[in-house]
Predict the structure.
Amino acid sequence: SSGINAEWPLRPGSMVVMLVASKKAASADPVEVKNLKDLLLTSMQSIVSLNELVTDLADKMARYTTSMSDTRSYVKQLKTSVVEAIGKLSSSFKETQEDVQQTKVVVGDLQKDANLTAITEQITQLRESLAETKAEYAGMNKEVMVVGSEEKAGDAKCVKVCAGTTGRDTTDWAGYSTHGLKLTVDISKCGYVKIPTITTSVEGKGYHWRATGTSAVYSTTTKGFTMYLEGGREPGHNPKGGKAEEWEWNVEWIAVGYTC
């Protein structure tokens, strides 16, 4: 009879409002009754919203409590890891200190035995010897100079003097003409990049003083050159037929050129 919907949920305290509204409904005019109903409806809606807010806050508090529990567990694990790491670091530091102490003992023993002093002196001598060698090398570069060459000059710092012999027992002479010999000399190990200047002579134990062409150089390259000799025409002076090998004729040569 009051006009209030029976489906609305009732809360403690709301019954009083309904009873008051019911009593007033008997004597009040319709407008006042309607206003009272609207007020009652608004109050009950506010109560429902408040209940929803409380439920939401309770849910958030539950999640926050769970998160705090996880955080405590993580902090505990992190603390354990840090303690273990500090322990390992302390152990490593202790081992390092022990190694340093052992090194000091070894150095002390070396100093007592004067071994370290001897080693230091040897190092000093080696440094001085190296400096002298460098100085001598620099002086040699200044003393050796190519004033003219078969090709365009190379770098003055790369001038090289290279010398050798074909050998008394290893010279492979080839016959040439009636009283002549031919020989190609290998100088590839010198490492020249420009055609060098070649000076030659013949060494042996007999009859080469009668030979001609001992300083004549043909077809020079960075790898080698060729020589032609002619022996004496007197009987017994012909170097062919193995006589040059018997007399141990060999070519001694000096080359000067650029290696860069």
User: Anything to note?
Assistant: The chain has four helices and six strands. Helices lie at 14-27, 30-113, 115-143, 243-246.
